[in-house]
Amino acid sequence: MARWSPPRSGVGGHDFDAKEKRKVAEIQKALSSEPIDVAALRRMAISEGGLLTDEIRRQVWPQLLSVNTDDLPPLPGKELREDNKDYQQVLLDVRRSLRRFPPGMPDKQREGLQEELIDIILHVLKRNPQLHYYQGYHDIVVTFLLVVGDRLAPALVEKLSVHHLRDFMEPTMENTKNILNYLMPIIDQVNPEVHDFMQSAEVGTIFALSWLITWFGHVLSDLRHVVRLYDFFLACHPLMPLYFAAVIVLYRQQEVLDCECDLASVHHLLSQIPQDLPYETLISRAGDLFVQLPPSELAREAAQQQAERTAASTCKDFELASVQQRPDTVLRQRFRERPRGEERTKPTLTKPRTNHYVRLVLIGLTVALGAAALAVKSVLE
Question: Burial code of 335-365, b = ≥16 C-beta within 10 A, e = fewer?
């Protein structure tokens, strides 16, 4: 089936200004290098505007995930649906995914893409029996299907699932809970007042669950914003979506502090994510925070005994498999090379308050996240 494309204008389907033309030239230079300059592609994906167009994403996303486009697996077939334990749940989720397809898409084409979406998901699960389907996974897969098409999507989604999403695809939600536990230490280091207010409200971090497990695909209505974030996340450490979640909360700090200090009020406020966020500013702040508060520091702050077991905290196998410059290094170099006058996020790096964290994490997070498995469905509907 032909991939759906929105109306286009200008040369190559996009009207570029001078700055964007320079960026396109840099991307093409990196792609034509021998070997391909993946570090440069990461910088382009992180920097303002991201990768600009889906045509460019189809060339760059495979490089960011170390997918060999000359050796793609066969397209998934309908036989995967037979006696598949996940088929019925995947079918239900995909049928509810109408809002994930761009407005104006003909019904027949959308229905065809939904069938392809089902097959891609079942294909990845069949090839990787250690991975377990979760509600919200289809929100990530549909983004890849819309951007790169049914030929590339299975290979990219498989690599993403085995590495970046692995912790969400465990048999239990234990690793997902551990990852969510990083959120409050980030907020505390930057704005202790907001952190303490949220702890007093006992809101926990369940409001951010659907953000993380769908890479914001479920909660943002504009596909342009979603793919811009995917450019950023694919170029960075697997934990970057959590840093982005933290900067959203911090960006809304005054709204939070003006809210009634109770669980229902604060949860309602935070779960209603604004659609008009200053995405480029928040992306820059999230990158800065990652450099200043790396996952290893957050693990110590949150006292996570199993942190070393998660893909989000190690990323070692992906770094070795990609045999390219580490995503972390690109971010740190970008941070160091910023002009001195450029505004940076300056978190309040106070002395670690280990006892304070342990007590509050036990009180707030254990209660809020202990029932996370029961809450996933309601969060995503």
Answer: eeeeeeeeeebebeeeeeeeeebeebbeebb
